[in-house]
Amino acid sequence: MKKHWSTEVFVFTLMGLIPVVLFSSWVTTVLWTWFMLPFGAPRLTLAWAVGLGCLVSHFLPKPKIDDSELTIEKSLALFIQHVLCAVLLLGLGWIAHLCM
């Protein structure tokens, strides 16, 4: 029998999703500005970056997560993983941008 998320986990996940998506979208706009504007691409706003991120993530394979046992700790770990990945991409992009 599949368990349902608790209200606390649902609210925590929903509240954490907004800043993570905004931060990831901001990283996308910065990388776009550094690497796509020199080729004449139009400027990417934060709203467009959110939409682009949603579109791309829709077509990517989804990781298998046993959500019957999703806890606040597991949700927090997923958020941290996503933010660290974005920070790593931003750092690597910054280094590459310095070399241009």
Poorly predicted parts: none
CA-based shape: elongated
Structural class: mainly alpha
- From the alpha carbons, calculate the radius of gyration and give it in angstroms: 16 Å
**How many DSSP H or I helices?**
3
Largest sheet: none
In terms of DSSP E residues, the strand content is under 5%
Give, in order, the helices and strands: HHH
Separation of the first and last Cα atoms: 56 Å
How many beta-strand runs? 0
Helix content bin: over 70%
pLDDT averaged over residues: 87
Keywords:
single chain, mainly alpha, elongated, 100 residues, 3 helices
Can I get a quick summary?
With 100 residues, this protein is an all-alpha fold.
Describe this entry's structure for a reader:
This protein is mainly α. The protein has helices spanning 7-35, 46-59, 72-98. α1 (7-35) packs across α2 and α1 runs parallel beside α3 (72-98).
Write the layout of secondary structure elements.
Blueprint: H1 7-35, H2 46-59, H3 72-98
Helix pairs in contact: 1-2, 1-3
